[in-house]
């Protein structure tokens, strides 16, 4: 297993988008996950709106504290392919983060939980928002 992008590239993409996250984690899937042929999450971004809404009274809380970003290791045989595919997907994910940070903190979107997932399957990446 190896990471398709490193911390420097993620931080550069965040800076270029004018975005920040409260937490950036690089993780390795457990043994046997994902199974061969199954889609694999490559990047996950979580917006914790409910937790942030409860803490809005703390004026020192930076908006980026509502964001967690995880980058998953992939099978090393796919690392170069996934890295190439992330050239467009990583900046798009970082623009999503920037848009989340620009929203009204008391608005309906900001106070709800959201997730953006960049997934690899069938030699392609797709972006899913929920």
Features:
130 residues, 35% helix, 5 strands, alpha+beta
Explained architecture:
This protein is an alpha+beta fold. Helices cover 35% and strands 25% of the residues. The chain is built from four helices and five strands, in the order H-E-E-H-E-H-H-E-E. Strands 1-3-2-4-5 form a five-stranded mixed beta sheet, with helices on one face. Helix 1 (7-17) runs parallel beside helix 3 (79-102). The longest helix has 24 residues, at 79-102. The chain is globular. It starts with 6 loop residues before the first helix and ends with a strand. The relative contact order is 0.25. The model has no long low-confidence stretch (mean pLDDT 86).
Task: Please render the helix and strand layout as text.
Elements: H1 7-17, E1 23-27, E2 40-47, H2 49-54, E3 67-72, H3 79-102, H4 108-111, E4 114-121, E5 124-129
Parallel strand pairs: 1-3
Antiparallel strand pairs: 2-3, 2-4, 4-5
